[in-house]
Amino acid sequence: MCGVLYNKKPISKELFEFCVDIMWFIFVILNHFREKGVHCTISTIKGGLVTQCHNEEADDANGRPALIANLGIRGVWQPQTAVLLDVCVMDIDAQSYTSRTIKNRKYSQLKKELGAFMTGSSNLKSYYNIVFDQQFSPFGKHLATSDIFGQIAVFSLSSALDSTNQSSGKAASRLLKGHRGPAYSLCNAGSLLVSGGTQELKAWKWEELVGNSEAVDPVVTLSPPISAASPVDINGLAYDKQSQTIFSAGGNGKIFSWDLSAGKLKGTFIHHWGEDGAVYVWDPSASNSPVHTIKAGDGRWIGCVAVDQSGEWMVYGGSDAPVVFHLGSMNKILSLPVPDGVVSQGAIFAKDNIITVGSEPTVRHWTVNGLPVAAVPGGHNHAFSVAFNDSSVHYEVLAVSGDSSDVNIFTNFGYKAFSLSVC
Q1: What is the pTM of this model?
Q2: Could you tell me if 226 and 199 are in contact, meaning their C-beta atoms sit under 8 angstroms apart?
């Protein structure tokens, strides 16, 4: 077994040569297996769990079916942050696999062991998890999260904030498998919760998510008109109440508008060309082309965009420092002075302030004028989402999620009160 961990830091020449040696070793092993007649491939899923395992049969020297070897690759690819690959090569005595019954029994046992290894009480699934997004319910009594395993978790805020519930109140009241791959984004659309995965959107009834029914099924599933050979991760969702339209954005540079009630595609907005470091502004009622283009700076990509309730102010950030922008005059006002090298992944307007999170274990609070208000320990080495519950005065909390199964809750903006556990 061998593993390589690359955590987005400059690597030494020795470490680079070591990585090259590891990949060469894998290539030699794969080539050896192919010569033996075993089908071996390596595949990865962007922003998701990497899991590839083959138990193909090959003929032995006498022409009888026999399993020669097996190659398993497990790991996690966290977009723009970290790659963890765990490569395991198993040589198996082909004679013991001449009986298909014995072979299947042994593989069933191996699958069971690996399943427990990845998802059992060993906390490895919790260690590998990434909570990409979160959304408070329309009435502010619940919080939903989406993660790298495609799970949608729902938490009761009343139970979580009850001081008598030391542990049970911090666990999800519902945990369902929402998507085949990772679930990247969440958004409210009236009484529905919309989730975005790879090549699909799903809408769920909040009433069912917070209810007592054992099974919850999506009321509608939508697939963008994209070739299945080039799947796209839906990493951004927004809802327009006036037109009752949901907008979805993905890695192919296209934005789609949807009519959820009819389950139909309404329109397509195209302009982004990869990670171009620009912010585009559309008027969906007028044209499919952007009415304004804001070149964010020298950075390669944008990681977050937020607009305040007035529609006058915007903050955006990514590989460059976050920028406060006035939409009314289409002018950049100032940059927020985050430390060098910090990548911004989440930003919101809350209580007349701006809150940003990213590739540091700190939640930063700013005035709209760019003055730092607080730098609060956030608990995540890399945070992907920050959300404020302004729908209920009784459960007015701040939530931050990122590179773990924990969602950190701030009842007072100055410190973390507790964490909710997805798994």
Answers
A1: 0.72
A2: yes
